[in-house]
Write a structure and sequence with these properties.
62% of the residues lie in helices and 6% in strands. It is mainly α and 696 residues long. It comes from Streptomyces diastaticus subsp. diastaticus.
Length: 696
C-alpha cells in the first residue's frame, strides 16, 4: 500500500528540489532559470539641478562612516519647514549612497497614509513589506506580527529607506530595518523627540542661501534678463525666501513671460504683496494661477478635493465631468505652470500648493457649490469604477447598493480585462477609495459611503490594509444606520466584524455580528434578503470557529445551509457544507468530515466551480488522511497541487506541500516529508513570507 501511495504522489505532485523546481519557482515571478530576486529601488528619477546642501550631505555621510556595529540602523533626521527641500535632499543623498545598500532602496510617504493627522502604522508597514517583495497572501495581519516580519526579513540586509513627512517618532520606529548595516533617511518639519534609536543624527535644513538660490534659478531659467537685471533677480530670489518649491514656480513663471522685463515682473509681484498683504511666495503662486486658462484654473481649485496624493487623468476628468484627454491636457498645463509635479505614477501637488489651491477655491467659490458638485461627481466616478472592478474580480455576488447616477456624456468608465487588473486598480486607488468613503459621509452622502464599502470588501480580502479597512467599514456601518436601509445595516456590520476578529478583537466583533443578526430577523422574505440572513448566520459561525467554539460553529453553519436549501441557492449549500466539513475535521471526526466534504466536492464539480473544486478536494484529502485512507487522499492532494500551480497560487501550493509532508509522515517516509516541508519553506520565502520556523 505504501508503494502504491508513493506512486500517486510521484510525477508532477512530487517535490523536485533540484534545478528543475527552482526554474519553476523563477517562472512564478516572470524570470528564467538565471533570474535573480528583484532588488527594490523606489526613488523617483532625478529631475532638475540640486544646489548646495554640502554640509548636510557631509553630516549624513559621516554618520554612516562612523556608525558602530550592534547600534541598530543609522537614522538621519532631516528637519525644516515645508517646501524647504527636505525630500529632495533625502532623495539626492539616497541616490548617492545607493551602491552601499545592495539589498535595495525603499520609500514611504507617511502623509499618503495620514487620516485626520494620524497614520495607521500597520498599513505603512504593509507598504514597506510589499516593497521587500512580500505578497498580500504572505503578509501578517496585525501590527505586532508585521513588525516581527519586518525584523526577520531585514535582520541581515543592507537597506536604505527614505521615510517622508514623519510627525512623531512612534510613526518611524516600527518601520526601521533590523540590520545595523542599514540607513533610514527621515524627513520631518520638527525634531522627533520620541524617536528612541541609538544611532540618530539630526540634520536641520534651512532656506537656500541667496547665492545658491540664484544658481538654482539660473538653472531653471536660461534667460539673459537674469544677468541684465541683477537687482531684480536678487529681489525675486529674496521674495521666494530660499524655498526650492517657490523658486521652481518662479522660474517657470519667468520663462512664460519672456517679453516682460524682469524688473517689471518683480514690481507687479511687489505691488500685489502691498495690496493683499501676502508673502512674496504666495504672490508667485498667484501669478502662475492667474496665467492659467479657465478650465485649468478650475481644475487647480478642485484638485484638493481628491483624497489621494497621486492625481490621474480619470479622477481629474471626473472632477470636471470631461473626457480624460482634456483632463490630461489640463494637468499638463498645470505642470508647465509649476503648480503640479509629474511622477511615474501620475501628477502630484506639493502640500504648500494644495493649501494655495484651497485658498483660491474659497475666494472663487465662497458658498462651496463648485466644490460640492465636483465632490459628488468624483464619488460617483469612484463608485462606478469600484463596482466594475468588483464584478470583474469577484463575479456576481450579493450586493445591495443601487448604481450611482450616470456621469456626464464625456466621462469614460474603465474596462477591466481580468481579475488581476481589477484587483491591481483597487490597490492603486485604495487611498482615494477609502478617502471617498469618509468624504461622502462628511458630505451627508450616506448611501455613497456604505455603497463604496461593498466593493472594498473584495479589495480587503486580497489586500489586508486593516487600519484603512476598519476606518472605512466603521464609517460604512454609521452611514448605513443613517439611511435606515436594513440590508445595508446588516451587511456593513458583518463586513466590519471580520477584520475585527482577525485583529483579535473578538468581543467587539461579536457585538457587531449580534446586532446584524438582530436586524436580520426583520428582513423580508425575498431571495436576496433570505440569502443575507443566511450569510449573517454564517458570519456568526465563522466567528465562533475562530474563537474555538466548534459545536456552536457547526450549529450556525447547519442553520445557514438549511436557509440556502430552502431558497434553492445551490452555491450557498456548497459553501456551508464545506464549512461544516472543515469544522468536523477540526473536531477530530474524520468520518463525518469525509461525508460532508465528499458532498461539497461533488457539488463543486457539478456546478463547474473550479476553484471550489480544488479547495474542497484538498480538504477532503486531509479528511481521508485522518481517516487512514491514504490512497484516496494522495490522488486528491496531487490534484490540489496541480491546480495551485496552474493558478499560480503560492499560498495554496504551500498548504498542499505541507499536507503532502503530513501524508508522507503517515506512511513512515520521514525523508520525503522533510523534502516537502523544505520546498514549502522555499516557496514561502520566494514570495516574501516567513518559513514555518519563523511564523509561530
Amino acid at each position: 500500500m505504501a508503494d502504491e501511495t508513493r506512486n500517486h504522489l510521484d510525477g508532477r505532485a512530487h517535490v523536485v528540489v533540484q534545478s528543475g523546481r527552482i526554474e519553476q519557482l523563477h517562472q512564478y515571478v516572470g524570470g528564467g532559470p538565471d533570474a535573480k530576486p528583484v532588488v527594490p529601488f523606489q526613488l523617483p528619477p532625478a529631475v532638475g539641478r540640486f544646489e548646495n546642501r554640502v554640509a548636510e550631505q557631509e553630516r549624513i555621510r559621516r554618520a554612516v562612516e562612523d556608525h558602530a556595529p550592534q547600534a541598530g540602523p543609522v537614522v538621519a533626521l532631516l528637519t525644516g519647514i515645508g517646501g524647504i527641500g527636505k525630500t529632495a535632499l533625502g532623495f539626492h543623498v539616497a541616490r548617492g549612497l545607493a551602491e552601499r545598500y545592495p539589498d535595495g532602496v525603499l520609500y514611504v510617504d507617511l502623509d499618503d497614509l495620514r487620516r485626520d493627522g494620524t497614520v495607521e502604522v500597520a498599513d505603512a508597514l504593509g507598504d514597506v513589506l510589499a516593497g521587500l517583495g512580500v505578497t498580500p497572501q504572505w503578509m501578517e495581519r496585525t501590527f505586532a506580527a508585521r513588525v516581527k516580519q519586518l525584523w526577520t526579513l531585514t535582520r541581515d540586509k543592507q537597506l536604505l529607506m527614505v521615510i517622508d513627512n514623519a510627525r512623531f517618532g512612534s510613526e518611524v520606529s516600527p518601520l526601521l530595518p533590523a540590520s545595523d548595516r542599514s540607513l533610514a533617511i527621515v524627513t520631518s518639519q520638527g525634531t522627533l523627540y520620541d524617536l528612541d534609536v541609538a544611532a540618530a543624527v539630526e540634520v536641520p535644513v534651512g532656506p537656500l542661501p541667496a547665492g545658491d538660490a540664484v544658481e538654482l534659478l539660473r538653472h531653471l531659467v536660461d534667460d539673459p534678463r537674469l544677468s541684465a537685471e541683477p537687482e531684480a533677480l536678487a529681489d525675486l530670489v529674496e521674495g521666494c525666501a530660499g524655498l526650492p518649491a517657490a523658486l521652481l514656480v518662479a522660474g517657470r513663471w519667468v520663462r512664460k513671460y519672456r517679453r516682460r522685463g524682469l524688473s517689471r515682473l518683480v514690481e507687479e509681484l511687489t505691488a500685489e504683496l502691498r495690496e493683499k498683504g501676502i508673502p512674496m511666495v504666495e504672490a508667485v503662486w498667484d501669478a502662475a494661477y492667474e496665467g492659467l486658462g479657465v478650465q485649468a484654473a478650475r481644475l487647480y481649485r478642485l484638485l484638493p478635493v481628491l483624497p489621494a496624493p497621486v492625481i490621474g487623468e480619470g479622477p481629474a476628468a471626473a472632477l470636471l465631468e470631461c473626457g480624460p484627454d482634456e483632463a490630461g491636457d489640463l494637468l499638463e498645463e498645470l505642470q508647465i505652470a509649476g503648480l503640479l509635479e509629474e511622477s511615474v505614477a501620475g501628477w502630484r501637488m506639493h502640500g504648500l500648493l494644495r493649501g494655495h489651491a484651497e485658498r483660491r477655491s474659497r475666494q472663487a467659490d465662497p458658498a462651496g457649490r463648485e466644490r460640492g458638485q465636483a465632490l459628488g461627481a468624483l464619488i460617483g466616478w469612484y463608485r462606478r469604477q469600484a463596482a466594475r472592478a468588483d464584478r470583474t474580480a469577484a463575479g456576481a455576488r450579493m450586493t445591495f447598493a443601487p448604481q450611482p447616477g450616470p456621469a456626464g456624456p464625456d466621462v469614460r468608465d474603465l474596462v477591466f480585462e481580468d481579475k488581476r487588473q481589477a484587483l491591481r486598480w483597487l490597490e492603486e486607488h485604495r487611498l482615494a477609495l477609502y478617502g471617498c468613503v469618509r468624504l461622502a459621509f462628511e458630505a451627508g452622502r450616506y448611501e455613497d459611503a456604505w455603497g463604496l464599502c461593498e466593493p472594498l470588501w473584495t479589495h480587503y480580502l486580497d489586500h489586508p490594509h486593516l487600519g484603512e479597512v476598519l476606518a472605512a467599514f466603521r464609517t460604512g456601518v454609521e452611514a448605513a444606520d443613517r439611511t435606515e436601509f436594513l440590508p445595508a445595516m446588516v451587511r456593513m456590520r458583518c463586513q466590519l466584524a471580520r477584520p475585527l476578529w482577525e485583529l483579535g478583537r473578538y468581543e467587539e466583533a461579536a457585538r457587531h455580528v449580534g446586532r446584524a443578526l438582530h436586524a436580520a430577523r426583520a428582513l423580508g422574505e425575498s431571495f436576496e434578503e433570505r440569502r443575507l440572513r443566511a450569510s449573517t448566520v454564517e458570519f456568526q459561525g465563522l466567528l465562533k470557529a475562530e474563537r474555538g467554539d466548534l459545536p456552536g460553529a457547526v450549529a450556525d453553519f447547519t442553520a445557514s445551509r438549511k436557509i440556502h436549501e430552502q431558497i434553492g441557492n445551490a452555491y450557498g449549500v456548497l459553501l456551508l457544507t464545506h464549512q461544516e466539513g472543515k469544522v468536523a475535521l477540526r473536531r477530530g471526526d474524520s468520518e463525518e468530515a469525509v461525508r460532508l466534504l465528499e458532498a461539497a466536492h461533488a457539488a463543486a464539480v457539478e456546478q463547474g466551480r473550479e476553484r471550489m473544486a480544488a479547495r474542497t478536494g484538498f480538504e477532503l484529502g486531509r479528511a481521508l488522511r485522518a481517516a487512514g485512507r491514504f490512497q484516496e487522499a494522495a490522488v486528491l492532494v496531487r490534484a490540489a497541487l496541480e491546480s495551485a500551480r496552474q493558478r499560480g497560487s503560492a499560498t495554496e501550493e504551500t498548504r498542499v506541500l505541507r499536507e503532502s509532508a503530513e501524508l508522507a509522515e503517515a506512511l513512515g517516509e520521514a525523508g520525503r516529508a522533510e523534502e516537502y516541508r523544505a520546498e514549502a519553506d522555499r516557496v514561502v520565502a520566494l514570495w516574501g513570507g516567513l518559513p514555518a520556523s519563523h511564523s509561530s
